[in-house]
Amino acid sequence: xxxxxxxxxxxxxxxxxxxxxxxxxxxxxxxxxxxxxxxxxxxxxxxxxxxxxxxxxxxxxxxxxxxxxxxxxxxxxxxxxxxxxxxxxxxxxxxxxxxxxxxxxxxxxxxxxxxxxxxxxxxxxxxxxxxxxxxxxxxxxxxxxxxxxxxxxxxxxxxxxxxxxxxxxxxxxxxxxxxxxxxxxxxxxxxxxxxxxxxxxxxxxxxxxxxxxxxxxxxxxx
Length: 222
Ligand SMILES: NC(=O)c1ccc[n+]([C@@H]2O[C@H](COP(=O)([O-])OP(=O)(O)OC[C@H]3O[C@@H](n4cnc5c(N)ncnc54)[C@H](OP(=O)(O)O)[C@@H]3O)[C@@H](O)[C@H]2O)c1
Description:
By secondary structure, the chain is of the alpha/beta class. 32% of the residues lie in helices and 21% in strands. It is built from 7 helices and 11 strands. The protein has helices spanning 40-53, 67-75, 103-117, 133-138, 141-151, 165-171, 190-199, and strands at residues 4-5, 12-13, 18-19, 57-59, 83-88, 90-93, 96-99, 122-128, 155-161, 177-181, 202-206. Strand 9, helix 6 and strand 10 (177-181) form a beta-alpha-beta unit. Helix 1 packs across helix 2 and helix 2 (67-75) runs parallel beside helix 3. The mean pLDDT is 97. NADP nicotinamide-adenine-dinucleotide phosphate is lined by residues 19-22, 31, 59, 128, 161, 179, 206-212, 215.
């Protein structure tokens, strides 16, 4: 499968990645329909199949239930075949999202992710924003912390998965990569994507199909 440079990170990614939310969590979801979490056998076949297809990017997070643990169990032996993106700042506990962006919590979260994922480094480490994108980065503490984790070898590239256009614009100042929503129904982030391209910041698109909601709309007729 084709590989493209991810901004100036030096990483090369396939145009399609695998978002690993649905293998770990089915509560508190934004999808149109409920679903069952796949069994261990199904997850093993799915994850092996993704790599066998040539897809080389997997995105997960501590907030995705058992997703990180399952990726570690199934794919630790194939770790050199994929780039691993995970996040910090949000946890999923007792059916609720909990956010803690204190430096200690972020550091601890990354260490726990590495342990669950059975690896010594992430390829991408993203702040998992609660929506307050600008506040999270305005005093520079979290960008500096992520830089120090990158310098320590815990992640090869850093950035933020955010929700607001101004927050994502601000992140271009320090991030190697941003993750943002972009699809045919919501093109708000287009100027951010263009600015990221100009500045050599990689862009990962989340919700490219509107989390499945787009598929429920009647087709457009010309
Ligand atoms: N805050 C964050 O950082 C954040 C937020 C959201 C997402 N993400 C990342 O982005 C990944 C993908 O997010 P997403 O799942 O919202 O992305 P998406 O690609 O917009 O939506 C995928 C959903 O669309 C459904 N779908 C696809 N084709 C369909 C069709 N032809 N008919 C009906 N349904 C169809 C899929 O169903 P099936 O599963 O049945 O195929 C799945 O439920 C996540 O796993 C996560 O890694 C990050």
